[in-house]
Amino acid sequence: MNTLEVKNLCTHFFTRAGVVKAVDGVSFSIGRGKVLGLVGESGSGKSVTGFSILGLVDPPGRVVSGEILYKGKNLVGLPEEELRRLRGNRIAMIFQDPMMTLNPVLRVDTQMIETVLAHEKVSREEARQRSRDALGMVGIPSPDERLKSYPHQFSGGMRQRVAIAIALLHRPDLIVADEPTTALDVTIQGQILAEVQKLAQNLGTSLVWITHDLSVVAGLADEIAVMYAGRVVEQGEVNAVLDAPYHPYTHGLIGSVPSRNKRGEPLRQIPGMTPSLLSLAPGCAFKTRCNRADAACDVMPNLDELSPGRFARCVHPHVGAEA
């Protein structure tokens, strides 16, 4: 059984200006110990997908349809009390901003020990030891001393490592990570990615890793789902997708990575801007920025399996010799 299955998830925001379809019919699944990279530019709906999984979408947003199956149990519509028992215990989230996790007026040891005791009946000393080990796991030096510190006494990168340590405390079955290493320097980023991979391999933890950084996904994920304007436009095994993308948007994303540009040439980029989710034209949302678009793109294409395990939502995909 898959750790997580998301089926036709729709999360909409009901604003005064109209309905924003932030997530519109997203589906994917993750097996035990596997890592799914959820990729897309800002406003593509990837973070809202992550918040939807944990039931953290605040009004005026709500999940309007679809299923989120954790080990076969549908989390959509689950009572808040049941969700709270799962959150932080079996399903954890690492936020982009560590201060969404940390309370600025409490010492780190208080926050970590209370997190352990909220879900498990263990002694305070055992909870402290587990907190200390978690800080060591994410590479924080002198964990005994740092436990006594307040969040403001840490640098931004250190705070993020504390937030990641809190997510690892219960060795959850599923972690949803929303760009957690964006603010970290490359050395620490590599260290944390290595720890996360070890966690997935040794403990069977499944990960949804939300990012816009394709280099992180290339080294970490098993599968990749590329989102654009609230929908998944391409999905498949990570190396297959990055080596020979089918969808023009994925093609553009990979082409705009600076290291793929020849020296002295202008940086390649995708023309135009992400469309407003309030006023999406019918058909493919990418058609206004795509050099392959024609009249056939005025009808929304399905996410079709174009080769074994490879899915793309496109009328004119890059397949065969031209890819």
TrEMBL record:
Q: Which UniProt keywords apply?
A: ATP-binding, Cell membrane, Membrane, Nucleotide-binding, Transport
Identify the InterPro entries for this entry.
AAA+_ATPase, ABC_Ni/Peptide_Import, ABC_transporter-like_ATP-bd, ABC_transporter-like_CS, Oligopep_ABC_C, P-loop_NTPase
Q: Which SMART domains match?
A: AAA (SM00382)
User: Could you tell me which PROSITE patterns the record lists for this protein?
Assistant: ABC_TRANSPORTER_1, ABC_TRANSPORTER_2
Q: What is one cellular component GO term in this UniProt entry?
A: plasma membrane
**Entries under Pfam families matching the protein:** ABC_tran, oligo_HPY
Q: How does it sit in the membrane?
A: Peripheral membrane protein
Q: Which domain of life is it from?
A: Bacteria
Molecular-function annotations in GO? ATP binding; ATP hydrolysis activity
Q: Where in the cell is it found?
A: Cell inner membrane
Q: Which parts of the sequence belong to the ABC transporter domain? A: 4-254
Annotated GO biological processes are: peptide transport; transmembrane transport
Question: What family, per the record?
Answer: Belongs to the ABC transporter superfamily.
Q: Please report the name of this protein according to its UniProt entry.
A: ABC transporter ATP-binding protein
Source organism per UniProt = Rhodovarius crocodyli
